[in-house]
Specification:
Blueprint (H helix, E strand, L loop, with lengths): L8 H7 L24 E5 L5 H9 L4 E6 L2 H17 L7 E5 L15 E7 L17 H7 L3 E11 L2 H13 L3 E6 L14 H8 L5 E6 L8
Parallel strand pairs: 1-2, 1-4, 2-3, 4-5
Antiparallel strand pairs: 5-7, 6-7
Length: 224
Amino acid sequence: MRIRHKPWAQPELDESSIYIRNPHEFYGKWQSAFDKKQEMHLELGAGRGTFIAQKAVKNPHINFLAIDIKSDMLGYANRNVQHQYMMANRTTDNIRMCTFDIERIALIISEEDIFSRIYINFCNPWPKDRHKKRRLTHTKQLNNYKKFLKKGGEIYFKTDDDELFAESLDYFKESGFEISFITYDMTQSSLPDNIITEHEQMFMNDGIKIKGLIAVYPEGQNET
């Protein structure tokens, strides 16, 4: 999704208690970014944050980290998070976000940072062959995630793009993940505890079927 530069976004993020300005400083110690130590979930490509804001406020027993490459997007995400927590009369103790290029995620998250679930929602499909390695579900990226995804951990993935979904099934297989749930129409069979974002609703209103899956990192598999 393209978004124009928002000059207010970075200043607001710099003043936000949930925004991590230097994610490299938390390499190997992401638990310390939160108020208390508990299970950690990760969203890759947070966008405007409507998903992670609702997910985090409903699950205070889980720490959530949201990453996006664009600070302009995270500016909106910060506002959405603050609104959701204010409506719930809660402090933002279990959610953090940072700006970073997910293709280089190994520079800010190490094998010591154990996440039990990863969310990838409506990522860029990169349809041209020469760009496909940039997909967040490409085999190369999935193998990177295995370095910090808990054995038995899960990746929740949903998209409106048919080609991306079909080819991602191959990527998950190539990288040793097992598909425990799959749907080709979220209106008929939804991911567990799914949160419908504005982005998702827009596609559904246009009659576009949303595809989704849960991929499990098998307990007995070695890292690639």
